[in-house]
Design brief:
395 residues; mainly alpha; Na+/H+ antiporter like fold; globular; transmembrane
Length: 395
């Protein structure tokens, strides 16, 4: 029996990538078959990972190669998040009568940050969650990628309302990323890394300046067998990720800056499509499914302290964004303000790498990480549905 278990474990490790890729293939087919396409793809992939992983059938046991692909997946996911930022929204409007979403979105995020600090203080003082700073970073994050997809589906991405939510979400991804990098460096006592943090931004600016002139030249010499724009994108990713790691920063910050640099180079629409195809076609599904595979809910539900965190963090994710209502109400009215406060509570994209950093630094346990992940998954299931209902009511 023991030998059988050993042989089974070896086989499962060897075929884990095939199992995960097959799961990635059939997940959208299953959601289409049962008419649940409204569920964010990331959530359906995590749920599929739970089914085939430690919690469910336990037929997928990722080895180092699968984990490496999953790590690349989160890097490319954050890179594509950086590419989604519309930098024209940050430009001051010459005509003062034209609405600019910058002021509203920045004020909105600052209220989220204030509420996150308040809620984290309550959890710290009550002893429910003792890492105050990590809680602030978690509560202030917003799932930029999920929200962009949702705004595209409902046709709001190009409206003033959609742009304001988009920019608020961008703040909710970039600022927590920087905060996580600084906090991680302090926890590891790499204080020089904090001083070296501007270096990664300087490198990003140098890369932007260097490639800004020759990027136009790419169109003249590019061909199907060279794909220079894709090669440049991966060069930017690995350059900034490598430098970020060398100065003690988080790799995902380098990936985000690489996406921002690529966006500022103004790539062709088909470049973004090709990069999205590579990311969402292979690397990113492996990351989300592997996250579900590694999530052991059986162990989680035997730890009642961790189980208690699920409703607490779920309420905190929602309450930290509820205050956005008062910022959006002045500009868009009550219903759309309520929709903004609900949709910005959607959080999963950055929560997963934050929790991974927390586990690596031994700031949180695996059970706590699983509980917080489950709370984030619930926000992605509930908040988009409520947002769509509010919009339908308004219509």
């Amino acid at each position: 029996m023991l030998y059988y278990q050993i042989i089974k474990g070896i086989i499962m490790e060897k075929f884990s990538l095939i199992i995960i890729l097959f799961a990635a293939l059939i997940t959208p087919l299953i959601t289409a078959r049962f008419h649940i396409q409204r569920m964010p793809t990331a959530i359906s992939e995590i749920l599929m990972g739970i089914v085939i992983g430690k919690t469910g059938l336990n037929i997928a046991r990722p080895d180092t190669s699968v984990q490496y692909i999953a790590n690349l997946g989160v890097i490319i996911l954050i890179f594509l998040g950086g590419m989604e930022i519309d930098f024209s929204l940050l430009e001051p409007k010459k005509d003062k009568t034209i609405y600019s979403p910058l002021g509203t979105s920045f004020t909105g995020f600052m209220t989220i940050l204030f509420m996150s600090i308040l809620l984290s203080g309550v959890l710290y003082l009550t002893g429910i969650f003792t890492d105050f700073v990590l809680a602030v970073i978690l509560f202030s994050t917003i799932a930029l990628g999920v929200i962009i997809s949702l705004l595209k589906e409902v046709g709001l991405l190009q409206t003033n309302y959609g742009q304001t939510i988009l920019l608020t979400s961008a703040f909710g991804e970039f600022i927590p990323l920087v905060a996580l990098t600084i906090y991680s460096a302090v926890q590891q006592r790499h204080y020089i890394s904090v001083l070296g943090l501007p270096v990664i931004f300087i490198i990003a600016i140098i890369l932007l300046h260097r490639f800004n002139r020759i990027y136009v030249f790419f169109d003249k010499i590019d061909k199907a067998t060279t794909q220079l724009d894709i090669r440049l994108a991966f060069f930017l990713i690995f350059t900034l990720v490598t430098f970020a790691e060398q100065i003690g920063a988080e790799s995902i910050l380098g990936a985000f800056l690489a996406g921002a640099v690529m966006k500022l180079l103004k790539p062709k629409p088909d470049t973004e499509d090709k990069l999205s195809s590579i990311g969402y076609g292979f690397f990113i599904p492996v990351f989300f499914i592997t996250t579900g595979v590694n999530l052991n809910l059986r162990t989680l539900f035997t730890n009642w302290d961790a189980v208690l965190l699920i409703p607490i963090f779920l309420m905190a994710f929602i309450l930290s964004k509820a205050i956005v209502y008062f910022v959006f109400r002045k500009r868009f009215g009550r219903r759309y303000a309520a929709g903004a406060s609900i949709v910005t509570a959607t959080t999963i994209t950055l929560v997963l790498p934050i929790l991974q950093v927390g586990r690596n630094l031994k700031l949180i346990s695996m059970a706590q990480s699983g509980a917080i992940t489950l709370a984030a998954i619930i926000t992605c299931l509930v908040c988009p549905i409520l947002f769509n209902k509010i919009l339908k009511t308004e219509e």
